[in-house]
Prior knowledge:
With about 60 residues, the protein is an all-alpha fold. The protein is built from one helix and no strands.
Amino acid sequence: MKHRAPRRQKGLSIIELMIALLLGLLLMGGVMQVFLSSRQTYQTNSALSQVQESGRFALD
C-alpha cells in the first residue's frame, strides 16, 4: 500500500481570513482613534488661538 503525500494547501483558510480581518479592524480602529484625537486637539488649539487674538485686539 502506497502512502500519498498530503496535498499542499492553496489559498487561505476561513480561520486565517477571519484573523486577518480582525487584525485589519484593530489597525483601522487605532488609526481612527489617532485621527479623531488629533482633530480634537486641532479644534482646541484653534479656539485658544482665537481667544488670544481677541484678547490682543481688545488690549490694542
